[in-house]
C-alpha cells in the first residue's frame, strides 16, 4: 500500500513538471504551428538564473532564503521573457506556420544558447538551498516539502492558464488562431501579436518549471533538454496543440516513468513510452485528445 | 420484383436488374460531423452516360456528398454502389482505382510541377510504358486545350487553364465516372462555354459519365440531363432541368437564400 | 551547369577526383576528411530524399546507426565476411524502416517529425542498454579485410559516391516525380489511383537503405562505434547541410556537406566552442539565405536553371 502511494506521489511530482513543460510546447505549437526544440533552453535559462541570483542575495545581502528565491524567481522570469521576445522578434516571427524553417531555427538556437550557457557558466552542476526543508509523510510515503510546493504551483499555474484560455479575450484570440488562423484574421485578430503572446506565455511556463525545478535538482547547462524528449512524447500522445491532452499525457508518461523506473529502470521506462506512442499511433493517429486531421 | 421494393431489402444488383444501366447508387446516405448532420437520408441513382447535376444553396451538403461518394469521407450511414459493386466504406484509393475519379475545388493541381508532370503523374497507375503514358498526356492536353502549356509550372497558369488542368488530371486516368467539384468557379463567359463543350465531348467521345457539383445555375441547366437539388443535407427535388427550375420548393430555397 | 548532363558529368568528375585524392595523397588526416565529407553528403542526401515527400525524417540518424551496428555486430560478434556484412547493412536498415514507415507515415508534418525524433533517441537507448553489443561503450575493432586496407578509403568514397548518384537518378525518374507530387498535394495523387501510403513508405525505405549502407561503411572506416555517435543531432547536422547547400537541388546537400565539414574541421582546430559555431551558422543561414547556396547560385544565373531553388515555402 505504502509503495503504491509512494509511486502515485512520484507520478504527481514528475508529472507536474512535465505538465508545465508540455503545456508551453503545445501552446506554442497550437498558435504558431512551430515545434520548438529550443523550449528546453528557456527552462535551463530560468534554472541558471536562480543559481546565479540566489546565492549572492542570501550570502551578500543577507536575505532570508524565501526572499532570495523570490527575487531570483522574478529575475528568472524576466530573463526568459527577454530571451523569448528577442528570439520571437528576430527569429520565429519569420517562420510562423513554417514547420521545417522554424525547426531549423529552433535547433540553431539550442546549439547556440546551450553553447553560450556552457561558455558562461561552465560544466560543473550547481545547487541552491531548498525553500522548505521538511519532509512530509503520507501513509508512510514520503514527499519533500519543496516538491509538494512544486506540485501545488504547477496545479495553480495550470488552473490560471485554463482560466486565461477559456475566460479572457486574449484566450479567445489564442483559441481562434489555433483553430483557424485565416478565419481569425478575417475577424480582425492580429495574428502576429497573438502569436507573440502565445509564444511568451509558453516560454514563461517553461521558465516557471525551470525555476521551480532549480531547488530540487542539480542545475546543469543542459537541464532543460532532459525534459524535451519526454515532453514530445507527451504531446504526441495528447495531440499537438491540445491543452487537455498535454495534462493527461504528462501524468500518463509520469506514471509510466515512476512505475517503470521503480520495477525496471529509467531507460526501459522511456522505451516503454515509445512503444505506447506506437500503439497510440496505430489506433488513433491524431493522439488521445487531438482533433481529427484528415 | 415488386417484392424487393415492398420489403425494402437492400439488394446489391437490384438497380442493375431493374434499369440495366445504373452506374452509381446511393441509399439513405448520411454523414454527420460530431452533432452536425451534413447529409441525411439521401438516396439517388445515376445512369451510365448521364451528366448529372448536384446543386443546392451554400452549405446544403453538396461537397460532403461528393467527398463521401469518392471515399474521402466515410459515410456515417447508408450504402453506396458503383457499377453494381458496393463501395460503402471503401477507401478513396480503392474507389478511384475502380474508375470513379474526382477533381478538387481548391488546391486542385500540383502547383510546383509542370503541366506535363501533372498529367503524367495521373497516368502512372493506369499505364505501364513511358511511351503510352506520354501519348496519354499529349492526348489529354489536346482535349483540354493545354498542349501549348506543357512545360509551364502549373501554379503559374492563368486561372482558367488551372481549372482545365485539374480536369485533365482526372481525365488522364480515363475514368468510368468523372466527378467535377465546381469546375466553372471563376471562369469567364467564353471559358465557361469551352468547358461545357469539353464536358459534352468527354461524355460523347470518351463515354464517360459526369457528376457535376456546380454553382453556375445557367450552365447546370444547359448541360445536365438530370439534376438533384439538396437543401439542409436532404434531397429537395429531382428531375430534368426544366422540371427542377419550375419546382416551387427549389425556387423558395434559392430565393430565400438570395435575399 | 547545375542541371542536365553537364552537371552530372561535373559531379562524376568531382567524385573521381576525390577517389584519386584518397589513393594518392599521403596524409591520413586529409583522406579521413574526404571520407567524412562523403559520409555527411550521404546523410544529407538521404534526409533530403525524404523531404521530397515533404517529411522531415530525423530517423535518418537512426538508420545510419542501424547500418553501422549491423556491420559492427556482424563483424565483431558473428565474424561475417566483409561482403556479407556490407550487404546486410542496407538490408537491415531497409527492413526496420519499412516497419517504422508503415506505422508512422499515417501521420505527417509535426507528428512525423517528433516521432522520428523519439525513434532515434529510443533506438540509441536500446543500444546503451544492450550489454551484448557493448552497451554505452559500443563496439570496437570493426576492421575491413587486411587486403583491402590500402584501398579502403577509395572504396568507401566510391560506394558512397555511387549511392549518391543512385539517389540522384531515382529523383529524376517517374518515381521521383510521384514523390514530389505527394509533397505538392497528396489528395490529388490518391485521387488518380496511386497508393500514397505505400509510396511514402517506399521513399523512406530507399533513403534508409542508402544511409544504412553509409552507416555500415562508416563503421568500417571508423572501426569504433558507440550509441553516442547516432543521436538525433546527426540528422540535425544533415539538415544543416541541406539547408545551407539548398534543398531545391540534388547538389545542395553535397555542397553544404563539403562546406560545413571543412569549416567544422577549421573551427575544431581553433579550439572554439563547436556548438556555438554550428548554432550561429544555422541561425544565420536560415535567416539570411532560406534558399541555400545552390538556390542563390541558381538565382544569380537567372532563368537558365529554373528548377533549382525556386521553391518557396
Q: How much beta of chain A, percentage-wise?
A: under 5%
Mean model confidence by pLDDT of chain A? 89
Strand order of the largest sheet of chain C: 1-2
* Residue windows where pLDDT falls under 50 for at least 5 positions of chain A: none
DSSP strand tally of chain C: 2
Beginning-to-end CA distance, first to last residue of chain C: 25 Å
* Largest sheet, spatial ordering of strands of chain A: 1-2
Largest interface summary:
A-C, 43 and 40 residues
- From the helix content, strand content and strand pairing of chain A, which structural class follows? mainly alpha
Strand count, sense and barrel status of the largest sheet of chain A are:
2 strands, antiparallel
Assembly type of the chains comes to heterotrimer
Radius of gyration of chain C: 19 Å
Radius of gyration based on Cα positions of chain A: 19 Å
Largest sheet of chain C: 2 strands, antiparallel
Residue-averaged pLDDT of chain C, rounded?
Answer: 88
| Regions with little confidence, pLDDT below 50 for 5+ residues of chain C | 303-313
Tell me roughly what share of residues is in helical segments of chain C: over 70%
Question: Layout of SSEs?
Answer:
The complex is a heterotrimer of chains A (294), B (259) and C (313).
Chain A: H1 2-32, H2 39-59, H3 65-90, H4 99-121, E1 135-138, E2 141-144, H5 145-167, H6 169-179, H7 181-186, H8 191-213, H9 228-238, H10 243-263, H11 266-283
Antiparallel strand pairs in A: 1-2
Helix pairs in contact in A: 1-5, 1-6, 1-8, 1-9, 1-10, 2-3, 2-4, 2-8, 3-8, 5-6, 5-8, 6-8, 9-10, 9-11, 10-11
Chain B: H1 2-7, H2 14-19, E1 22-33, E2 36-47, E3 51-55, H3 62-69, E4 77-82, E5 85-86, H4 92-97, E6 100-102, H5 115-123, H6 130-143, H7 159-171, E7 177-181, H8 189-206, E8 209-213, H9 217-223, E9 226-231, E10 234-239, H10 241-246, H11 248-258
Parallel strand pairs in B: 3-8, 3-9, 6-7, 7-8
Antiparallel strand pairs in B: 1-2, 1-4, 4-5, 9-10
Chain C: H1 4-24, H2 28-51, H3 60-76, H4 82-104, H5 109-129, E1 139-140, H6 152-172, H7 174-184, H8 186-191, H9 196-222, E2 224-225, H10 232-245, H11 252-270, H12 274-288, H13 292-300
Antiparallel strand pairs in C: 1-2
Amino acid at each position: 500500500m505504502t509503495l503504491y502511494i509512494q509511486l502515485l506521489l512520484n507520478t504527481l511530482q514528475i508529472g507536474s513538471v512535465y505538465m508545465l513543460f508540455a503545456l508551453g510546447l503545445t501552446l506554442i505549437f497550437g498558435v504558431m504551428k512551430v515545434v520548438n526544440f529550443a523550449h528546453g533552453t528557456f527552462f535551463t535559462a530560468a534554472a541558471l538564473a536562480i543559481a546565479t541570483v540566489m546565492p549572492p542575495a542570501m550570502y551578500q545581502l543577507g536575505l532570508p532564503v524565501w526572499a532570495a528565491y523570490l527575487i531570483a524567481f522574478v529575475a528568472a522570469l524576466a530573463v526568459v521573457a527577454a530571451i523569448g521576445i528577442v528570439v520571437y522578434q528576430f527569429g520565429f516571427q519569420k517562420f510562423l506556420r513554417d514547420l521545417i524553417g522554424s525547426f531549423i531555427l529552433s535547433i540553431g538556437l539550442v546549439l547556440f544558447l546551450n553553447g553560450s550557457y556552457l561558455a558562461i557558466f561552465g560544466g560543473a552542476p550547481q545547487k541552491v538551498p531548498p525553500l522548505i526543508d521538511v519532509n512530509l509523510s503520507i501513509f508512510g510515503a514520503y514527499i519533500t516539502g519543496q516538491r509538494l510546493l512544486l506540485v501545488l504551483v504547477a496545479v495553480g499555474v495550470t488552473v490560471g492558464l485554463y482560466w486565461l484560455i477559456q475566460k479572457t479575450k486574449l484566450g479567445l484570440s489564442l483559441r481562434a488562431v489555433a483553430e483557424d488562423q485565416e478565419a481569425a484574421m478575417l475577424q480582425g485578430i492580429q495574428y502576429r501579436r497573438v502569436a507573440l503572446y502565445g509564444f511568451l506565455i509558453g516560454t514563461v511556463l517553461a521558465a516557471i518549471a525551470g525555476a521551480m525545478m532549480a531547488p530540487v535538482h542539480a542545475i546543469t547547462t543542459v537541464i532543460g533538454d532532459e525534459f524535451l524528449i519526454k515532453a514530445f512524447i507527451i504531446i504526441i500522445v495528447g495531440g499537438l496543440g491540445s491543452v487537455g491532452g498535454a495534462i493527461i499525457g504528462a501524468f500518463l508518461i509520469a506514471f509510466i516513468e515512476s512505475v517503470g523506473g521503480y520495477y525496471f529502470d529509467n531507460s526501459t521506462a522511456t522505451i516503454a513510452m515509445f512503444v505506447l506512442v506506437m500503439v497510440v499511433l496505430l489506433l488513433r493517429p491524431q493522439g488521445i485528445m487531438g482533433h481529427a486531421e484528415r | 420484383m415488386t417484392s424487393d421494393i415492398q420489403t425494402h431489402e437492400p439488394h446489391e444488383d437490384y438497380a442493375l436488374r431493374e434499369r440495366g444501366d445504373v452506374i452509381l447508387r446511393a441509399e439513405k446516405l448520411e454523414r454527420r460531423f460530431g452533432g452536425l448532420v451534413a447529409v441525411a437520408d439521401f438516396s439517388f441513382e445515376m445512369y451510365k452516360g448521364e451528366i448529372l447535376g448536384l446543386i443546392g444553396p451554400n452549405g446544403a451538403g453538396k461537397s460532403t456528398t461528393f467527398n463521401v461518394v469518392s471515399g474521402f469521407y466515410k459515410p456515417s450511414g447508408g450504402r453506396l454502389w458503383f457499377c453494381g459493386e458496393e463501395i460503402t466504406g471503401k477507401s478513396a484509393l480503392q474507389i478511384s482505382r475502380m474508375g470513379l475519379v474526382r477533381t478538387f475545388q481548391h488546391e486542385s493541381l500540383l502547383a510546383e510541377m509542370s503541366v506535363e508532370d501533372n498529367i503524367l503523374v495521373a497516368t502512372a497507375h493506369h499505364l505501364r510504358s513511358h511511351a503510352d503514358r506520354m501519348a496519354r498526356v499529349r492526348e489529354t492536353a489536346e482535349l483540354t486545350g493545354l498542349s501549348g502549356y506543357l512545360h509551364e509550372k502549373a501554379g503559374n497558369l492563368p486561372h482558367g487553364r488551372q481549372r482545365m488542368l485539374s480536369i485533365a488530371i482526372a481525365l488522364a486516368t480515363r475514368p468510368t465516372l468523372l466527378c467535377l467539384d465546381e469546375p466553372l468557379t471563376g471562369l469567364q463567359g467564353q471559358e465557361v462555354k469551352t468547358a461545357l463543350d469539353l464536358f459534352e465531348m468527354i461524355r460523347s467521345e470518351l463515354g464517360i459519365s459526369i457528376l457535376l457539383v456546380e454553382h453556375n445555375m445557367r450552365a447546370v441547366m444547359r448541360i445536365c440531363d438530370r439534376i438533384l437539388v439538396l437543401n439542409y443535407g436532404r434531397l429537395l427535388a429531382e428531375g430534368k432541368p426544366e422540371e427542377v427550375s419550375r419546382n416551387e420548393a427549389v425556387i423558395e430555397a434559392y430565393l430565400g437564400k438570395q435575399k | 551547369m547545375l542541371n542536365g548532363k553537364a552537371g552530372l558529368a561535373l559531379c562524376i568528375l568531382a567524385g573521381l577526383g576525390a577517389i584519386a585524392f584518397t589513393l594518392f595523397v599521403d596524409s591520413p588526416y586529409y583522406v579521413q576528411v574526404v571520407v567524412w565529407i562523403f559520409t555527411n553528403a550521404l546523410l544529407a542526401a538521404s534526409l533530403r530524399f525524404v523531404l521530397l515527400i515533404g517529411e522531415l525524417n530525423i530517423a535518418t540518424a537512426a538508420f545510419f546507426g542501424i547500418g553501422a551496428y549491423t556491420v559492427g555486430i556482424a563483424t565483431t560478434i558473428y565474424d561475417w565476411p566483409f561482403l556479407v556484412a556490407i550487404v546486410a547493412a542496407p538490408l537491415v536498415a531497409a527492413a526496420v524502416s519499412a516497419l517504422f514507415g508503415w506505422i508512422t507515415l499515417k501521420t505527417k508534418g509535426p507528428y512525423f517529425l517528433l516521432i522520428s525524433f523519439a525513434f532515434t533517441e529510443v533506438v540509441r537507448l536500446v543500444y546503451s542498454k544492450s550489454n551484448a553489443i557493448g552497451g554505452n561503450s559500443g563496439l570496437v575493432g570493426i576492421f575491413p579485410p587486411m587486403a583491402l586496407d590500402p584501398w579502403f578509403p577509395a572504396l568507401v568514397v566510391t560506394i558512397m559516391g555511387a549511392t549518391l548518384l543512385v539517389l540522384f537518378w531515382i529523383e529524376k525518374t517517374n518515381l521521383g516525380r510521384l514523390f514530389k507530387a505527394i509533397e505538392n498535394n497528396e489528395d490529388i495523387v490518391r485521387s488518380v489511383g496511386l497508393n500514397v501510403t505505400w509510396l511514402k513508405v517506399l521513399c523512406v525505405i530507399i533513403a534508409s537503405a542508402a544511409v544504412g549502407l553509409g552507416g555500415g561503411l562508416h563503421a568500417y572506416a571508423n572501426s569504433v562505434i558507440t550509441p553516442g555517435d547516432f543521436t538525433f543531432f546527426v540528422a540535425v547536422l544533415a539538415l544543416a547541410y541541406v539547408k545551407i547547400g539548398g534543398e531545391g537541388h540534388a547538389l545542395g546537400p553535397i555542397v553544404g556537406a563539403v562546406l560545413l565539414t571543412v569549416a567544422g574541421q577549421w573551427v575544431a582546430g581553433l579550439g572554439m566552442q563547436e556548438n556555438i559555431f554550428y548554432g550561429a551558422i544555422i541561425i544565420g543561414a536560415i535567416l539570411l539565405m532560406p534558399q541555400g547556396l545552390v538556390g542563390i547560385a541558381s538565382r544569380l544565373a537567372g532563368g537558365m536553371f529554373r528548377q533549382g531553388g525556386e521553391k518557396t515555402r
